[in-house]
Amino acid sequence: MQDEGRPHQEEEQMLALVKAFEAMMAAGDSKFFDHDDLEMLIEHYLERGSLRKAQQVHHYAIGLYPESLGLQLREAQILAGNGKHVQAIPRLKNLLSFEPRNEEIHLTLANIYSQMHEHKLALHHFRELLSFSDSELKKELFIDVALEHENLGEWKQAIRVLHDALREDPSNETALYELAFCYDKEGRIQEAEAFYLTYIDDFPYSFAAWYNLGNARQRLGKLKEAVEAYDYAILIEDSFAPAYHQKAEALTAMENFGDALEVHKEALGLDIPQPSTYCYMGECLEHLGKLDEAAEYYHQCLELDANFLEAHIGLGVLADLREDHSAALEHMAQALLLNPNHEDTLLMMATILKKMGRHEEADTCLVQLLERNPKHVEAWEERIDNMQALEAHDQALILLDNAFEHVPPTSTTLGYKQFVSLFALRLDGEALRLLDHLLLADFDGMNQLLETYPGLLDDTRVASRYERMKP
Fold it and tell me: Collapsing DSSP states into helix, strand and coil, what is residue 223?
């Protein structure tokens, strides 16, 4: 019972100390304060970011205790807090020569070097500390060392240290999350999945392990197994909102939009409403064909964040589905104001402009997209479609030559477009030879082409090839 009241008692003592010192300064008096009390007072102000007050206490304290190493350390910490790292480091190194195993000096130096992006020097001091610190501090130090390796892009070393952290303290949740991040950076997702499965064998009630297992499985495309892992995480910790969000994402990827929507609703009851949640709910409703409800959620998203790009795009898609192309264009234009080079928006805007017969403007959007990403196959397809809609087949063939410089020449979708333009220009021999190859490589592609150009089968040469090659 006495231990339970100690933090409150210490807080009261600190408030009394603060009050006494500030009253003395306000009155312009000079009183005696115990050395340890003054150190505690400086630390109190440093923790709260009150650097000016910490400096004021230090100035007063050093007059009483000019030889104090502890106050010299506080002075270095104040300098570091003010961004004067170059001045702080020599003082700390000098103190270290007197107390080479002082934990606080090593920690202060390590943190200063980390802030200066001198991560190898930070690692030196963190590792020095590991050599003599107690087990409680080691739990934190392993994470500090791992983070410095991450800052250096040394993912393998970070993974090794994080495993050390878990051996020291298997319940270290920070280590579990950082391991997931490092395995992801290394592209070792299968190894991550195997690790979390092994960990769960020993610690089956770790919601963090189940959650990270779900994330690994989702990255591997094991969506059903990912949902199961998220369910276990939620079962253990039903207020852990990230598990709901990730479960909903996995269900959406499975095109299970109804269940995803319900999980998003559950998440709303646990967390401060996020614009992204409302937007994802709008997308689910859009896929379920509930366009009016979808629009409501997109608007709710924009009420929280007027610049949420995906919500503007979503409203544009809804307007396009309703064949209200002018409204769709307005929403896409708003999205482009937020991100002028957003590839999906440029592509959708070009598609809408094409539907409106504004082919030159559509081409301008596609040119802008392809200048940024010349390997964007869908943009090449749309640009060539746009030329073919204008019956500019010579230009379409030139574009196809350009496209094949950037995308695989084995693309049958572009190949069928090439056939259309060759055939339209009466280059029958070349067109029919290409068609023979395409029908062998991708017969279904011909069925898709016939949805746009059903009249192709009126030509007996095309029809006979089509019938002959039918699987």
Answer: helix
Could you tell me which of 136, 124, 63, 58 has the C-alpha nearest to residue 96? 124
CA 83 remoteness from chain centre: 30
Segments forming the whole domain that contains residue 336: 275-340
Burial class (CB in 10 A: 0-12, 13-18, 19+), 271: middle
Residue 336 lies in a domain: yes
Instruction: Convert the pLDDT of each residue in 257-281 to its tens digit.
Output: 999 999 999 999 888 889 999 999 9
Rounded CA separation 20/42 (Å): 14
- 0.85 surpassed by pTM: no
Q: How many domains does the chain have?
A: 4
pLDDT tens track for 378-422: 999 999 999 999 999 999 999 999 999 998 878 899 999 999 999
- 373 belongs to a structural domain: no
> Could you tell me if 86 and 99 lie in one domain?
yes
Report which secondary-structure segment, H or E, holds 12. helix 2-27
Q: For 284-334, what is each residue's pLDDT tens digit?
A: 999 999 999 999 999 999 999 999 999 999 999 999 999 999 999 999 999
| Alpha helical stretches, state H, 28-102 | 35-47, 51-64, 69-81, 85-98
Helix (H, G, I), strand (E, B) or coil at 307: coil
